């Protein structure tokens, strides 16, 4: 569909409420939109506009900002989109602004704080000092109290943690999903730990994703374990943490993915939330979980991937009477490990979890040798009861 055809379409369909021009609906790369005609301003009744996956689209006309009835603007995966229109803040009825995958957009135009109806904002870009335009900052987010889904990119550009505080995430009582991307390291000094400490999501949060964090401690003040009682899904990827955070106290957590933490060498008591500083108990007692005897009480799916230096996974409880008093991941159904070349052994206690239905071990040669090796590995008997087993993407047991 060329520009003239789209222009003609707008001339005749001025009462449109919904317009679907995504690449998925255009069916062919040959008809991908290269630009949206300025005449889009004629669609004054438009509520929904989907331009997603149009990889030839580089910018939107300023006239789109005159569509005051627009409630949803989808620009997901317009990979060559370079900027958003300056007048975006005029779309005061906008509820959904989706810009996932628009990585060439390096700033958010000023006025975002006026979009008080926003429910979904994907994604806010924290610009660097090289951007000369008038931009929106994290402080503008503080005004958007109705957000349910929020994605923030290039958090590594934030130089003062007080700016992150001004986003007032704690005041967004309806926030359900939060995506934090700190961005690739650019060689400049960063304040990732201070910024992370300043971010205080509300207890309503159900999904948290963190990418490219460069601090050594992921949650400096442990806000994730202190207040996020409704959190169901956590994704931690491409971070420089040396030690995994304690997540065992999250009562609602069902899915946990840890990927690309290249500096982690050992997963142990810190992950399970086990205290080891009681000098009045023996070594076995010192390894027992404090307070509740259940770690990760509702976790169903656990994924580890890209952990190049990970060598040891210890769960801190020896077999016997004491082990029976404590439960680790009692609801676990799926355990997946991908590209963990140095990991040699899995926790026996975890493999004996009665609920475990699926085990996948891919590109983990030491684990392959120990637990499988054509069913003659020394510990094959420890996993052979699991209904479905994948080794190096091959189904070796199950339907």
TrEMBL record:
Pfam families to which the protein is assigned, alphabetical: LRR_R13L1-DRL21
Every copy of the R13L1/DRL21-like LRR repeat region domain together lies at: 138-260
Q: Where are the transmembrane segments?
A: none
| The name this protein goes by in its record | R13L1/DRL21-like LRR repeat region domain-containing protein
Species this protein is from: Cephalotus follicularis (Albany pitcher plant)
